[in-house]
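Lab notebook, design round three. We kept the backbone fixed and only want residue identities now. Task for the bench partner: fill in a sequence for the structure below.
Input structure tokens:
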């Protein structure tokens, strides 16, 4: 018999994973692209066989390269990066601006564990850029909408919901 699933905990977990990918998109995209360039350039493979008879490199280097690129491009990381890009394409201008500001303020933490530390700087910058300073609750609601949309897109893309080491 299957264990009962705590649906509320599962929803919170999926939202936390999606929020992490949304917030750290730029860094992860850069790392993903760098890894792809390394694979294409063959920087990670070197023949350590010095003076021996046979090379320790694979016998079919093109086939090996294609397999590694395919694995890289179809990884869970690649799927999540596509989820963020799809989410950005769907968002309206205000929510897109909020996402960009949230990414900039990703390291702001609350000193006392109260209100999330990113809200005030995002509110301030949002007001400077758009001329409209939304209430704290409005910012939080808009952020929850963005995260919920990203979760739906991730489910449709078949992403795995795993937390990486990066903290929200």
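Proposed sequence:
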């Amino acid at each position: 018999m299957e264990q009962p699933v705590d649906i509320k905990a599962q929803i919170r977990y999926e939202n936390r994973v999606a929020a992490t990918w949304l917030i750290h998109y730029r860094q992860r995209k850069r790392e993903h692209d760098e890894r792809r360039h390394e694979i294409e350039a063959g920087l990670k493979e070197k023949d350590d066989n010095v003076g021996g008879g046979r090379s320790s490199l694979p016998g079919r280097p093109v086939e090996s390269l294609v397999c590694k690129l395919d694995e890289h491009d179809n990884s869970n990381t690649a799927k999540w990066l596509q989820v963020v890009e799809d989410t950005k394409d769907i968002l309206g201008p205000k929510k897109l601006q909020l996402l960009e500001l949230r990414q900039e303020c990703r390291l702001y933490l609350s000193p006392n564990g109260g209100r999330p530390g990113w809200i005030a700087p995002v509110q301030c910058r949002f007001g400077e850029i758009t001329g409209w300073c939304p209430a704290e609750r409005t910012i939080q609601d808009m952020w929850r909408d963005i995260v919920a949309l990203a979760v739906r897109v991730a489910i449709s893309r078949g992403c795995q919901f795993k937390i990486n080491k990066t903290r929200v």
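Keep this in mind before ordering anything: Residues 9-157 form one domain.
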